[in-house]
């Protein structure tokens, strides 16, 4: 296989480990704390997780562990969307297993959770592992979004694990995937199996975090990758001085990526979905925020700028959220009939008789291309596919209309020419930063130590991440500790609670304190490409979000 010079160099990079996981594996002891409780709905969750609720926190420290040298057989799954560093989680798990006992075996389930259900696995050996160390992507074994949720799927998963003689299954994924991990751990215990289940926190969106999971892996690399691109566009805008760039960023349920990229690049405008929802801002008010910056900058003779937009923004605007909910209901109830209507005009006529008057008015006021995107094919759960809605183009069109009105009123004399961008897939499979390479390797190694210590139903945890890697704290958090009950498809189900941007948190407050100046002045920062070699303060630093949250 042909490889680039950077890839060759990255193969040789040795990720750093916390002191508690370094050295001989025989010296990795586990300390268990007191029983834990879920963040809410404790009674309901005790009923769902009769055998695995309330486990203690686990922390690794130097000591003796008589069980760690056992010969183990483990299966690993990459679940959900790609995130930089997934291969290093597998590398940390692989190296830990082999250091514990060279006869231990690691299987990779192909194509995500379906690989476990359907018994599609590949044994991972040293040669295969060495081809993927410190590289981006999930192409080593592939990923998938299948959920293990039916009785048949749970039974097949257990049967596969038994056939392969597994001691444990490691699920690398986000909140939904790790909710699955908790349910699988409970199922195995209920069926009298001692096969363990361990999760690892993955999502570039950054919404899987709490007191014990300081960040999800991939967030650091993705944000640095997007910030490089944003910085490049800012420099271009400041050079050409004639375009406004509207940049949509990943983040349907939370705006962590947009906020982090704003802190790294200092754009003129950055919309935060959680703030829009909290303040109940209308679409018109959101447009006014952007238009106000355009007008003020034009007064300074600067007819250019950069605006960052979270992917899920439209679902946080109250009237748009109501419109989408109504559309989802109507299109689900009349799916067959609606699919037979070819003309967009006829579709609107049909909806006039089924939507509320307010929603009909909004739909008609939207640019035709955006309205068509709202009426496009639903996802498997019957919801609008938000990532396909070109929110950046929606805002460009509406800001343009607003500025025309202001120009007629004599309140705006500038020129407005805008370009739209969407940065999504560009960040999901980048070469992991040194931070993510180290963090992911530590998560995988910690997952091995949790398995070797006989624990199940835990999420691998590495904390104190703003310190040097040697000072990080490794251990495990009970999956049930992070859960609550939420309404899903008409039924209350256990889920790991998503972490949204906290409007009283330090990162948002730091942003809010300076965004007024950014809206008027050109304060752009140009972070440049991710650096892998050089001073630690350049190469190993975590995100600004993490630094602000932990100081």
Could you give a quick summary of the protein structure above?
Helices cover 43% and strands 16% of the residues. The protein is α/β, with parallel strands linked by helices and 551 residues long.
Write the layout of secondary structure elements.
Layout lengths: L4 H7 L16 E8 L6 H7 L7 E7 L10 E6 L7 H15 L4 E5 L3 H5 L3 E4 L1 H5 L20 H13 L4 E6 L1 H16 L5 E6 L17 H22 L3 E6 L6 H10 L3 E2 L2 H6 L4 H17 L5 E6 L7 H16 L1 H5 L4 H9 L4 H9 L2 H7 L16 H18 L9 E6 L1 H4 L5 H19 L5 E6 L9 E6 L4 E6 L2 E6 L9 H15 L15 H4 L4 H6 L2
Parallel strand pairs: 3-4, 3-6, 6-7, 7-12, 8-10, 8-11, 9-10
Antiparallel strand pairs: 1-2, 2-13, 4-5, 12-13, 14-15
Helix pairs in contact: 3-19, 8-9, 9-20, 11-17, 12-15
How would you describe this structure to a colleague?
This protein is 43% helix and 16% strand. The chain has 551 residues and is α/β, with parallel strands linked by helices. The chain has a 9-stranded mixed β-sheet with strand order 1-2-13-12-7-6-3-4-5, sandwiched between helices. A 4-stranded parallel β-sheet has the order 9-10-8-11, sandwiched between helices. Helix 9 crosses helix 20 and helix 12 (318-333) packs across helix 15. The chain is globular and about 80 Å long.
């Amino acid at each position: 296989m042909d490889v680039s010079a950077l890839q060759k160099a990255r193969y040789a990079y040795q990720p750093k480990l916390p002191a508690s996981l370094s050295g001989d594996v025989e010296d990795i002891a586990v300390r268990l704390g007191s029983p834990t409780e879920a963040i809410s709905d404790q009674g309901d969750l005790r009923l769902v997780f009769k055998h695995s609720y309330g486990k203690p926190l686990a922390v690794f420290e130097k000591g003796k562990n008589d069980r760690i040298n056992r010969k183990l057989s483990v299966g690993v799954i990459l679940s959900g969307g790609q995130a930089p560093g997934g291969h290093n989680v597998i590398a940390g798990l692989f190296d830990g297993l082999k250091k514990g006992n060279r006869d231990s075996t690691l299987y990779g389930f192909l194509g995500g959770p379906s690989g476990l259900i359907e018994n599609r696995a590949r044994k991972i050996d040293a040669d295969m592992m060495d081809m993927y160390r410190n590289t981006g992507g999930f192409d080593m074994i592939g990923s998938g979004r299948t959920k293990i949720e039916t009785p048949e799927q749970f039974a097949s998963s257990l049967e596969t694990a038994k056939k392969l003689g597994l001691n444990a299954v490691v699920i690398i994924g986000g909140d939904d995937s790790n909710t699955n991990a908790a349910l699988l751990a409970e199922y195995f215990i209920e069926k009298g199996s001692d096969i363990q289940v361990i999760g690892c926190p993955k999502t570039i969106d950054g919404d899987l975090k709490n007191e014990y999971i300081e960040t999800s892996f991939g967030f650091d690399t993705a944000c640095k990758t997007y910030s490089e691109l944003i910085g490049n566009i800012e420099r271009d805008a400041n050079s050409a001085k004639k375009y406004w760039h509207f940049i949509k960023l990943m983040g349907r349920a939370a705006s962590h990526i947009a906020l982090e990229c704003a802190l790294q690049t200092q754009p003129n405008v950055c919309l935060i979905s959680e703030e829009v929802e909290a303040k109940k801002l209308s679409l018109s008010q959101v447009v006014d925020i952007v238009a106000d910056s355009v007008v003020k900058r034009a007064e300074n003779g600067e007819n250019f700028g950069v605006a960052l937009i979270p992917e899920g923004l439209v679902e946080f605007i109250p009237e748009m959220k109501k419109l989408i909910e109504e559309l989802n209901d109507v299109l689900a109830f009349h799916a067959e009939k609606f699919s037979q209507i070819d003309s967009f005009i006829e579709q609107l006529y049909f909806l006039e008789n089924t939507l509320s008057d307010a929603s009909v008015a909004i739909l008609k006021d939207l640019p035709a291309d955006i309205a068509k995107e709202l009426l496009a094919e639903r996802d498997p759960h019957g919801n609008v596919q938000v990532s396909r809605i070109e929110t950046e183009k929606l805002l460009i069109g509406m800001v343009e209309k607003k500025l025309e009105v202001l120009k007629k009123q004599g309140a705006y004399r500038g020129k407005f020419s805008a370009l739209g961008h969407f940065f999504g897939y560009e960040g999901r499979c980048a070469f992991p930063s040194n931070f993510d390479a180290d963090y992911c390797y530590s998560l995988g190694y910690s997952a091995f130590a949790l398995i070797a210590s006989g624990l199940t139903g835990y999420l691998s945890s590495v904390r104190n991440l703003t310190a040097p890697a040697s000072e990080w704290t490794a251990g495990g958090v009970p999956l049930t500790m992070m859960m609550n009950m939420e309404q899903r498809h008409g039924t209350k189900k256990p889920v790991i609670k998503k972490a949204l941007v906290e409007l009283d948190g330090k990162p948002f407050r730091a942003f809010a304190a300076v965004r007024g100046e950014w809206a008027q002045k050109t304060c752009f920062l140009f972070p440049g490409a991710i650096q892998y070699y050089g001073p630690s303060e350049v190469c190993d630093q975590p995100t600004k979000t993490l630094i602000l949250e932990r100081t």
